[in-house]
Amino acid sequence: MIRCIAFDFERKHDEPVAIEAVRMEIASGRFVWVDVELGRYAGRTDIERAVGEHLHLSPDVIEIMSRHKADTGYEHVPDGLHIAVVSCKWADHRLATTRVDVLMSAGFLLTMTRGHAEFLDNVRRDYRDDFERFARSPGFLLYEMFDHLTRSYEMIEQHFEEEVERMHLKLAGRLDASVFPLASRVAANIVRLRRHVAPARAVAAELGSRRSPMVPETTQPFLLSTAAELERILTDLTVSREILTDAVHLSMSYLTYRTNNVINALTTVSFIFLPLTFLVGVYGMNFEFQPEYKWRFGYLWFWGLVAAVSGAVGLSLWLVMRREKRAIAAARRPGRTVGARGADSVDRD
Fold first, then answer.
1. Which pairing describes strands 31-38 and 108-114: parallel, antiparallel, or unpaired?
2. Virtual CA dihedral for 13, 17, 23, 29, nearest 10 degrees?
3. Those residues with Cβ within 8 angstroms of residue 207's Cβ, 6 or more apart along the chain or in another chain
4. Considering only CA atoms, which of 147, 116, 118, 117 is closest in space to residue 130?
5. Axis-axis angle for helices 220-283, 139-172 (nearest 10)
6. Which residues contact 163 (CB under 8 A, 6 or more apart)?
7. Which residue among 3, 86, 92, 256 is least crowded, i.e. fewest CB within 10 A of its CB?
8. Is 177 strand, coil or helix?
């Protein structure tokens, strides 16, 4: 699909034109926005057939615009200024990306996508209002694109903030094995979005600060404000990822704490039963001359010994645990420290 719109900035007039009439409109002094939407696997031949002949694009420019890698950057080319940005959309629980090529030339602005770029839909819908009120040069289209691209990034960043909040609540509640893969996927998507936002911020800052015949000076302050907004989005993404990482670490620490409590309980029980196991082993031996077997009250003797050993071990554990609790409580009191033997000593600093 090819859309062409001719702009007259003096009379504030715009109208659609055919691709075949673009060169004539440029010759008459009007600026043309050529918007091309190709198939996802379109190549060099498809680009030449769609716009190459009508816009007289050089082979080098067509070669650059035929790249499929979803990356962001800009470079000066013989036909003007080439900018590549990445349109992102959250769909089906994944981050879908589309490369958008922008060619800024003396008489036209070419935007080309393989597939669908949602932020360009917003540019097509909203550009007319800004054109009639503010536009003084073709650079307003460049700002419109970066502005709507920034808004699309911001919407996805807000979605990730909500995802991080939901993950935080899940990690703070009853845990199951499915929570950690979900948290890992959210963190990976945040990193992926950040990988596209960071170079977009760098490009906007470069275009807004360096002089270029393709970027009017009246447009540069707006591009710098867009770069500042992209920087804020980058900061928010970093904070969201750190919050999610801290929540995962806290959840893992809580799991470790619960596991240690279970192990401590099992250790306590095993410590009590260890001497009893020894006694059972001793009296379970099949020696012929074992005097307790001949005693009339040998059975009662055995249970008495068991009770005595269990009581002694239990009392020892209770005293040790009580001492530890007192030491911990003393350490938490303000102005007091715990000595090497657990005794309280006054902090005299």
1. parallel
2. -10
3. 74, 83, 142, 215, 220, 223
4. 147
5. 20
6. 186
7. 92
8. coil
Structure tokens at 342: 């657990």
Find out whether 7 and 83 touch, Cβ atoms under 8 Å: no
Buried b (16+ CB within 10 A) or exposed e, 315-341: eeeeeeeeeeeeeeebeeeeeeebeee
Q: Which two tokens mark 344? A: 């309280």
Cα atoms in the 13 Å half-sphere on the side-chain side of 167 = 28
pTM of the model: 0.72
Per DSSP bridges, beta strands 94-104 and 13-16 are unpaired
User: How far is the C-alpha of 138 from the C-alpha of 7, rounded, in Å?
Assistant: 8
pLDDT (tens, 9 = 90+) of the chain, 349 residues, equals: 888 888 888 888 888 888 888 888 888 888 888 888 887 767 777 777 777 777 777 788 877 877 777 788 888 887 788 888 888 888 777 888 888 888 888 888 888 888 788 888 888 888 888 777 777 778 888 888 888 999 999 999 988 888 888 887 777 767 666 777 888 888 888 888 888 899 989 988 988 888 777 788 888 888 899 999 999 999 998 988 888 888 888 877 777 878 887 887 777 777 777 777 777 777 777 666 777 767 777 778 778 878 888 788 778 877 877 787 777 777 767 655 444 444 444 444 4
What are the Cα distances from residue 80, in Å, to 60, 76, 106, 315, 317? Answer: 12, 6, 7, 88, 83
Domains contained in the chain, CATH given: 2-252 (3.30.460.20), 286-346 (no CATH)
Task: Return the residue matching tokens 């769609």.
Answer: 50
